[in-house]
Write the structure tokens for this entry.
Amino acid sequence: MTSRRSGRTYGTVSAERQKEMSGLEFVQGLIDGTLPLNTIAETLGYDIVEAEDGRVVITAEPRSTHLNPAGTVHGGLAATLLDSCMGLAVRSTLPKGMGSTTLEIKISFVRPITPETGLIRAEGVVISRGRRVGTAEGRITDGRGRLLVHGTTTCLNFDA
């Protein structure tokens, strides 16, 4: 099932189709629109904007719909952005026929995020990628380059 918003397509990519491409081809397909973005990207309003081997960047504009009861952006937005950019960074290093999934994620909040923060950028970079396990680190920064949130992930790599 897919849907469209703002010229983007949202949905899932079949396992068969994923097996046909390398991890980097998969992530680049999400960027160029030849593959649908996941529906959580539609729900939270984020976009994958850059990818190269071992590095992925996602951007989002914090909105009032992201607020927690205290009036700041809920930590779940940052957690999702980091999980996505770090996991996709690991995925970008995998050959055809391999997939990955998050085993663990750790994040630390450094500065609050509010709708006034403006566009935020989540960048994931691979630290290590073996046959079965990949690790990556991620940073969310604001438009002035200030660190807002940082984290690490461990991903399990598997034959798809």
Summary: Strands lie at 3-5, 8-10, 46-52, 55-60, 98-109, 120-129, 133-141, 147-159. The radius of gyration is 15 Å. DSSP finds four helices and eight strands in the chain.
